[in-house]
Amino acid sequence: MTRPVTAGVDGSEESLAALAWAARQAVRGGVPLRVVHAWRFRPGEAPGAGDRETQERWVRETVTGAAASVTSRHRGLEVTTDVLEGDPVATLLTAAAEARTLVLGSRGHGAVVGFLLGSVGQQVIAEAARPVVLVRAGGDRPADEVAGHEIVVGQQGEPEDSAGVLRFAFEAAAARGATVRAVRAWTLPPLFSYSPASLKLLDDAGGPEPYEHKALAEALEPWRDRFPDVPVVEHVEMGSAGQVLLSVAGRAQLMVVGRRARRSAVGARIGSVAHGVLHHAGCPVAVVPHA
């Protein structure tokens, strides 16, 4: 079964921007588009007030109208719609598990700050088994339609740690004819954290910065081989990962970051890097779960 690109819509401007992005993604990948709405009957709330039938009809008409807006622009794109009743987080997580990518809209704070994550979006990102892309409304032209803009991806740890993130970035770049900018940020750890083995690795590499360049090159090697036509820029910079990624966000049509969900007493939380990028990047952001 071919996994669709799935967009969550609720009729808002942000969700319609996410739907438009998802439709372009589906066309590039030659896959179907699925449009979903997570709905719960809310007595006394407009539209329909206490009338369940009227409220459900309004929801279905909203979803159908949203789908029609993309089919009119993308002739031949296979589009399905679903109004799924239930808890929004659970419903969207199920939809994400069945998709190749789940795309959601997010309300922006303005030109400087990127995304305002509600509790639903935050939980879905933290728990989804598949990549989730956040798209905000606004701007004269979608970032992925601006010539020269790159796919920026954050690489951390060992090659196997970032395999899923790099795969997503290279596949996106290949579909768009774009350049991948692979970013690896590094900082000097406290002296007491160096072990004899780590000191030897640094010494063999010629110092901390050459070591980081070598680590990034090794992580990229299998993806360069698999996608030989995708241009790659290797970007190694000292600083926090979130800050370094945001410093190049202005040239990105899409930013790709990984996440490891962290559990707390109040539920799952995404890592600080993904959290910072989601709140401050102006372009769409893909959050890819680590294996």
UniProtKB/TrEMBL annotation:
Pfam families: Usp
InterPro entries in the cross-refs: Rossmann-like_a/b/a_fold, Universal_stress_UspA, UspA
UspA domain location: 1-136, 151-289
Highest taxon of source: Bacteria
Membership in a protein family: Belongs to the universal stress protein A family.
Protein name, UniProt field: Universal stress protein
